[in-house]
Design goal:
about 260 residues; 10 strands; about 30% helix
Amino acid sequence: MNANDAAIAAEGLTVRRGRHTVFDRVDLSVPRGQITGLLGPSGCGKTTLMRSIVGVQAGVGGSLRVLGEPAGSKTLRHRVSYATQAASVYDDLTVMQNLRYFASVLGVHRDDAERVVKLVGLDDAAGRRVESLSGGQRGRVSLAAALLGSPELVVLDEPTVGLDPVLRAELWQLFQELAAGGVTLLVSSHVMDEALRCDRLLLLREGQIVADTTPSELLESTGTSDPEAAFLAIIAAGGGTGEVSPHVPKHAGGDLR
């Protein structure tokens, strides 16, 4: 895929944090208009990669282009949004006050706050102060803020943490609707079952991309019936080349934690 055709394209990406090298000459490509899942155990580099993509990570080397521009370019500020794992909202404001404030900062019409609060299913909580909300609701306020202005690329770090199964399913339905409308989503998770909800997968382990594939290809190539077993099979086979080996053992044990 041409770097300008991809939503995200990295060549020789290297990220260092102090004396520690998180990524060492990594290549990857994320297609436009799809949901790409960034999956792997805690500490594998998911958040560092996302921070690099949105241009807020120090110590980044190599080539990293986002929507055809260098990551972090000023021209991307209204085209790319980022929702961190921790809710980035004001506790002493209501849901709607938060969203209208962020809309004004972005230069988006205040009515867009009403659109996004409905998208994330917080209509009934729009007048409540954020400090009174549950952890899952606070996360959805952050997600709503990330959707203001209809960005082309939405980067979401663990957006379903703390949500019950019904709300998780509803959010993934929203993600699929956004992708169907042409939005590119990069969604990180350590819950391997969420891999099946993505169009494409990047599986990470210790700063390496051990698989760049689709959900169906992942299961077929490893001869497994669920994503967690597939991930473990790749690790058992010595995965770390960025490719899924067709000779991965069909049965492998282990613990993702």
